[in-house]
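Whiteboard transcription, Tuesday session. T.W. wrote the structure tokens on the left side:
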């Protein structure tokens, strides 16, 4: 499964939270006109990295000579949307648990086949293993449904992030400041777009995994029923 640039999320949070960021635009008399904006993407992870923490609030952007009140508010919203993107951990947990349950179902199916077609046919064991297969396959399907819910949550987070980025672009247009004079804002929008693309790809991967898990669980259960019906 691809989990493309999972830590781009943290970097995107950093671009408005001052995570390793520098201001490259022209500062006002009081300093940088957009404090904490313009971080760069950090290293990516494919399996174990946690999503951005939502426990600390993003620093606020205040209005200044090049950042009007509307743009400052939009940037603050973008920072919050980035930091509040849902964790990927629940989805990863659903995948792991679902695969574990599917493995148990397949093991029970193998035992069922041995009891149905072996030299010592035992329909009692067949019936018992059929029940185990059914239960484990059902549990795997349940994890697929849980994963579907996580996919929906991830996509909702991406939609909110994209809406916040659109609001920033609209605010820049409304105040008629050339984007060339707002390099930190441009960097924020670029990082937000990259984060949205990464999260969308990850959500799509999880959706495919959920579909495959559900299909495989159904196939194992159907095979157990078929073997039982023919042998006993």
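and on the right, the sequence the group agreed on:
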């Amino acid at each position: 499964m691809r989990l493309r640039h999972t830590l781009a999320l943290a970097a995107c949070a950093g671009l408005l939270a001052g995570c390793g960021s520098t201001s490259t635009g022209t500062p006002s008399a009081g300093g940088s006109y957009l404090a904490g904006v313009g971080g760069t993407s950090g290293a990516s992870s494919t399996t174990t990295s946690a999503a951005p923490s939502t426990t600390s609030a993003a620093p606020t952007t205040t209005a200044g000579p090049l950042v009007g009140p509307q743009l400052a508010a939009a940037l603050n919203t973008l920072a919050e949307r980035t930091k509040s993107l849902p964790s990927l951990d629940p989805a990863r947990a659903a995948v792991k648990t679902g695969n574990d349950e599917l493995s148990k179902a397949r093991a029970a199916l193998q035992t069922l086949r041995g009891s149905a077609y072996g030299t010592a046919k035992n329909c009692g064991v067949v019936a018992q293993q059929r029940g185990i297969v059914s239960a484990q396959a059902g549990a795997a399907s349940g994890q697929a449904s849980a994963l579907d819910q996580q996919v929906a949550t991830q996509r909702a987070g991406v939609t909110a992030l994209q809406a916040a980025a659109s609001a920033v672009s609209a605010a820049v247009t409304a105040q008629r400041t050339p984007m060339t004079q707002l390099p930190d804002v441009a960097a924020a929008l670029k990082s937000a777009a990259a984060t949205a693309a990464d999260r969308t790809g990850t959500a799509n991967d999880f959706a495919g995994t959920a579909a495959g898990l559900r299909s495989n669980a159904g196939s194992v259960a159907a095979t157990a029923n078929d073997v039982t019906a023919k042998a006993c």
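Someone added at the bottom: Confidence is low (pLDDT under 50) at residues 1-59.
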